[in-house]
Design goal:
The structure is a single chain. It is built from 8 helices and 7 strands. With 258 residues, the protein is α/β, with parallel strands linked by helices. It has a single domain, classed as Rossmann fold (3-Layer(aba) Sandwich). α1 links the parallel β1 and β2. α1 crosses α8, α3 packs parallel to α4 and α6 packs across α7. It is globular. It binds nicotinamide-adenine-dinucleotide. Nicotinamide-adenine-dinucleotide (NAD) binds next to α1, α4 and α6.
Amino acid sequence: MRVKGKIVVLTGAASGIGRSTAILFAREGAIQVLSDINEEGLKKTYEMIEEGKDRTTIMKVDVKNPEEVKNMIDITIEKHRRIDVLIVNAGVVRVGPVETFPDEDYDLLIDVNLKGTHYTCKYAVPYFKKQKSGSIITLASVAAHIGQVAHGNYCSTKAGVLGYTRALALDLAPYNVRVNSVSPGATDTPMLQSDVAKQARDRSVTYEEIKKEFEQEGVMGRWATPEEIASGILFLATEESSYMTGADIRLDGGWTTQ
Ligand SMILES: NC(=O)c1ccc[n+]([C@@H]2O[C@H](COP(=O)([O-])OP(=O)(O)OC[C@H]3O[C@@H](n4cnc5c(N)ncnc54)[C@H](O)[C@@H]3O)[C@@H](O)[C@H]2O)c1
């Protein structure tokens, strides 16, 4: 068991990459606090955990709301006295050309992807500093590294996550706390499926055509499974990555290598 007894806090655990990560970490022995804005999805994740339900707490948390995020961290500390691994995974995507991009959609992207990442780190950092140990893992994206058609607003938030992660790594290095990100490419989750469906509607082509485009972005010619991204997150949570901080792992099937 690679994270046996580690206290793990994970946001966005009700779906996709977060759900697969929760299931993997449970199998690997973690004691987890899983949160999401979607309570039904969170309950389903809990049900899907085969080993380690007794080590798992679920909590409805909206990462846009600093009080709810602070409460999640406070409850974790009350219950477990420390946090070993913080996985800042909750995210949203909205796509469309910048000239017609709704302001409220951009607000949502910034509030969840950027400010949500900040709040989640903000309230946990004092405990990490006190402990002088731990690993923080954020979710960037290929969209942080390259441009994607009709993704300008999303790209700007994910590039922001990458910058935030690097800077926080510097702040926390003296405290023996590592901060890294993963950058998934096209990963088969409800988020990507909705992104593809919206682009198909906007461009009046079929879902399958857009799906094929995404598959061909990576040199491996297929989407990732959420489990493949969870594996990278697990690596960053363990001592196997003990000399990595401020780094980003591109799990993108070669998309950004071409
Ligand atoms: N799927 C991909 O192709 C892909 C690629 C690159 C990066 N990512 C990133 O990976 C992360 C996970 O994405 P996914 O593909 O699993 O998406 P997903 O939509 O399947 O899961 C995202 C989860 O975040 C939750 N969430 C959204 N807003 C929230 C809020 N305000 N508070 C709390 N939880 C909230 C959702 O309810 C959902 O359960 C995101 O940060 C995403 O940007 C995904």
